[in-house]
Amino acid sequence: MTTSFKLVAGDAFPTIKANLLDGSTVQLGQTITEGATWHMVVVYRGKHCPLCTRYLNLLEEYKTKLADIGVDVMAVSADSKDQLEEHIQKLNVSFPIAYGLTEVQMKQLGLYVSMPRHEQETDHNFAEPGMFIINEAGTLQSVDISNAPSLRPELEIVVHGLTFVRSQETYPIRGTVEY
């Protein structure tokens, strides 16, 4: 059995930079939209994953509701620039998508990492899905990681829950009891 590091709610989100197609670099976990104080980072497997394409397109449908409660959205994968340029043709999204997540960065995020089954799938190891909600203090408010593409949080429930949490004057970060 292997041991691995996992980020937990209440941790400071690590400093991780990734690339955007326009040539700029973005720091994951930092808000990018004016008026947003919280940030959602969605890690997806890459262009080879049809479930990821579906999930990112579905996330676009919730982007406005998230913006209404002060949460902006970004997605990232280990794909190359060329792979993202090809994938973007199948996506109908307006939120930023970054590329070039390294295995070191995947480990910093505590993500599960998989090898491609064959070279037609992709040409590099890739992260399995993850969702990180970072609050205004740069702290992980919520974290969800999966080892399979079919296990992801239902976006309607995520948005509903975040709407509730953001409406409270104070709401603790859940799941922080150590044992």
TrEMBL record:
SUPFAM superfamilies registered for this protein in UniProt: Thioredoxin-like
Listed InterPro entries: AhpC/TSA, Thioredoxin-like_sf, Thioredoxin_domain
Gene3D superfamilies cross-referenced by the UniProt entry: Glutaredoxin
All copies of domain Thioredoxin, residue ranges: 7-164
Any one GO MF annotation of this record: oxidoreductase activity
Source organism superkingdom: Bacteria
Pfam families registered for this protein in UniProt: AhpC-TSA
Protein name: Redoxin family protein
Organism (species): Neptunomonas phycophila
